[in-house]
Amino acid sequence: MLAPLVFVISGILKAWHLVISAVPGVSASTAWTASVVLLLITVRTALLPIAYKQLVMGRKTVNLRPEFAAIRLKYARSIDPNAAKYEKWAAQELRKQHGINVWTGLIPPLVQIPVFIGLYRMLRHMAAVGAHGSSHVTERVGLLSGDEVRGFASATFSGVPLPAYPAMPQPQLAELGTSFSDVLSVATPLIFAAAAFTGINMAISVNRLRRTLDHGSRFMRGTYKYLVFMTFFAVSFPLFFGFFGPAPLAIVVYWVCNNLWTMSQNAIITIILEARHPLTPEFKALRDQSRDARRQQRKNRRRNRREARSSRWRAVAGTIRHPRRREELWDAHRTFLAEREAAAKAMTDRQMAQKVKIHQTRQLARLLRTESQGDLPSMDRPTRVNDAWRRTAPLPEPATQEDERIVGKLGKVVVRMVLAKDAQDKKRAETKRAKAAARLKARAAARAAKNAGLDG
After folding, report:
1. Euclidean distance between CA atoms 103 and 100, whole angstroms
2. Lowest-confidence range among 15-19, 180-184, 207-211, 391-395?
3. Exposure of 298 by Cβ count < 10 A (0-12 exposed, 13-18 middle, 19+ buried)?
4. Cβ(162)–Cβ(250) below 8 Å
């Protein structure tokens, strides 16, 4: 599965090695080391426009967040039966208008990760085939011939072979012509540099996400917490993998250069973004509003927990002081918890009732639509809905604001139809109750007459 990656990476290395080797006065060892660095430059330079476009689109998406929120709010209260589709289309049209493509952000990692895996696989393979000395290497690795693999296996960085790593067994290090102390002395500063650059890169990413965090989204809050946690893991990974894992020196060199490039690129692009695409006042207001609302929610939860603990401890303390009032104190505590739970349930029920009301209104609006047009049908046509409307007694105009809270393309017509339907249901229920009461009254009269006859 990774064989094609090895062929691609080995081809790039071979091309750069041929170019550098043609320069007079450059040794073969220096040519191979420079090829690893130039491989990084080749990949990152090719991805630089995409990386910049990814960050620019991310900033544009952030600045458009108030408009997306307005679209969601508009269609969440709309009585149009196709409101969900319209909301999706409006969001897509807004992204298309500003040239935002969410798939572009996946291109840099989808290219960099295979390059790193291919380079690691190739270097590990070279270290394995060169374990018995570079003079015995005859096996090809990707597009590199046996002679080129032999030359790479004997290439050094500061006197240490590129395939060597600190955790390599001592006999294999001896076969490569080096020792553990030599490898450790060269790899240690590189590993610490890679960890430091990784930490700085993660800090830049965390700060960028913190400034544009959507506090109202649970997913984004979880992503931010996960990124903060991964910062510590990302800094410790180069240390453990570099000292205790099979990390060839060529990988460490590539790692240091890659993280240095990423750190510089992030810093420069961040400065350019702040100059060309600063955060808009509308987004800052929305961000501050969602952040304050989130803080208020957490404050309310903490207050509720404190009140519950205080109520419980009052019951415990009162029970200790007045054992005879134990049932009374704990009943008061349970009543307090039940009242607070009932208040929360009532608020949830009101929100759910509003959603159900909008859903029912959308169903009524769907009945009023023709199959080919999105406008209201003529009220003069003999349709099932219009017949039901005509049979309904006319209602006065809604007098309360609650009756007029549903707005949309259909306006008060839908409100009147909802009220008419409720009136019909109420009238049918009253008629049913009246008939049941009449039946009960007739049965009671019949029973009384029968009893009177028996007495006579």
Report:
1. 9
2. 391-395
3. exposed
4. yes
